[in-house]
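Could you help me review a protein record that somebody else here produced? Do not assume that whoever made the record got everything right. The record follows directly below this note.
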Amino acid sequence: MIEYVALVNKGLVHTTCDDSILVGHNIISNGKLMGCEDRDEGVFAVADGVGGLPFSELASREILRNIAECNARNKEEIINCVEKGNEKILSIRNQRKLFPNISSTLCIVALLEDEITTYNLGNSRAYRFRDGVLLQLTKDQTKVQQLYDMGLISESQMYTHPEKNIISGYVGCDEFDSKWIDVITHREKFRKKDLLMLCSDGVSDYISIDEVEDVLITDNELSIKADIILDKIYSNGAGDNISLILVNRL
């Protein structure tokens, strides 16, 4: 059995929200959703419309519509749905004569009993929390991550670098290739009392790992944990849209 809580919030700076999240078959772009499932499986995703451009929210919502019915057991189906979602975004862009680069990050977690598979494009993230430690499962597809991997900048410089918002993987691209999707079936299993966290950079940029761990290790209900994380992000400036999903295996 799993329980989940998901929330989307525009933050303190933006007047609109470009983020969307998928929990099961439900897509939300504002507010909070809680639930519980008897089965230990499902598809969860965060999509963050890139760049704060007008209509950029269309990209995040459209890509999630295309994976909402995907089977967590079928990797090929999920990848095909991402490809079709990219085509739909391009079609919407062309029909409405919108900005040529409306696009979205995408982070998917397919949960199948104790197996976790992540599908990642961009800098939205998936984490696993166990025994007080929050471990990042995905790797950012960004310019600063590339510079860090090459040893050209330090970890602390990643957060202040002038090109920290440049992403190298996204949907909404004419040259999109499914090989861009970083697909990992993780060797570490999803145990009982483990917790999954998916989020946009509006979370990861405004709250530290230590702060999140301090919240998740408490005995508070899952919904209260999400609210506390949101409050801390607001206290830290909330300069971007906020998307957060917490999934607990009971």
